[in-house]
Amino acid sequence: SIAKEYRRNEFLHQQFPNITPEPLQLSNGVAFYEYLPGRTLEEAIVNNADTIPFEEIGQSLRHWHDELRTTEIPHEVREDSEGKLDRFAIYKNKYATPKGIEQVFSALVTKGYLDSSELSGVTDKLVASMQKTVSSDIFNLPKDTWGHGDVKPENIILAQNSSRFYFIDNDMHLMPAVLDLGKMVSRTLAIGLGNNVPIEILSANIEMFLKGYYANEPIPFQKIADIIALDFIPILGYYSSIDKKQLAEYPSMAQLFMKNLLQVVDFISYLTSKKHEDLNSIINFFRNNHSLKI
To answer: Residue 203 and residue 69: Cα distance in Å, rounded?
Structure first.
């Protein structure tokens, strides 16, 4: 509800006043927040901006995670958020069996994205990818912090005429911290590739984000690759319900995934069929004559 969201944001602003918008008032079911002039990180990526503070964003997200590992969460905020959006449970329940994959993706034929002759090849690849992911340890990661829950470029505001930035639209809940990292990398890749941002620029930006977060610690590239695959499969599933004739009316992310359906499925298969020890291993798929275009 609006009231629960407002309470979460009040708590977060008390903890992180420099990177979250200030809640101003809750009145008659309407929440008012500080106005933040600027643009989203997504807009900056699409426009290939010269200076984007990816390293600082990574550092701030690490500060968020570290602080909320040890901070006492107020009872009402904990109650509002506890158990919220357990994405691993959602993914496992919906996509972890051949039957689940087939039910979700049979719509690809009825909605006009695939011929019936292509469906079995797509579903076989997705089933194999999910089975490999389920057999890994990604579903058993400890819920070790109260994360943002929806870290992606459209939920980060770069302030106008300053170097400040803000995390918005949080879905704070108890979760594995790396889930925030994986989703940020996943969506940065998708947004950049769909808007013709050169892969080397995307790679450098993601590298800076991960460096900011992990500093001198080892970066868990295998877990990040698994999370990207887990992020892409439900996106495909969600957009597969859109009629192909109506696709132009939907956001660019929907068009990106559905117009490049076979490439996206191949990328998911690639992510789950290899061991990934660095960022190059993850993104080399797009260096080898693969591209995503709207």
So the answer is: 29
Q: What is the pTM of this model?
A: 0.93
CA atoms of 124 and 237, how far apart (whole Å)? 15
At residue 46's C-alpha, the angle toward residues 45 and 49, to 5°, is 50
Alpha helices of the chain — where are they, by DSSP H? 2-15, 41-46, 54-70, 75-81, 87-95, 98-105, 107-110, 116-135, 177-194, 199-214, 221-239, 252-259, 261-273, 279-283
**In the beta sheet, which residues pair with residue 173?**
147
Termini Cα distance of the chain: 35
Say which residues have a Cβ less than 8 Å from residue 285's Cβ, sequence separation at least 6: 266, 267, 270, 271
174: phi then psi, degrees, rounded to nearest 5:
-70, 125
Low-confidence ranges of the chain (pLDDT < 70): 82-85, 289-294
**Of 279, 262, 178, 185, the residue nearest 223 (C-alpha):** 178
CA 158/CA 282 separation, integer angstroms: 27
pLDDT of residue 26: 83
Please report the pLDDT score of residue 206 as a whole number.
Answer: 97
Token look-up 């900056």 returns 44
Note whether 180 and 151 are within 8 A (CB): yes
Phi, then psi, of 175 in degrees rounded to 5: -165, 165
Closest CA to 220 of 181, 259, 169, 168: 181
Residue type, 262: L
Q: One-letter amino acid identity for 86?
A: D
Which helix or strand (DSSP H or E) is residue 32 part of? strand 30-33
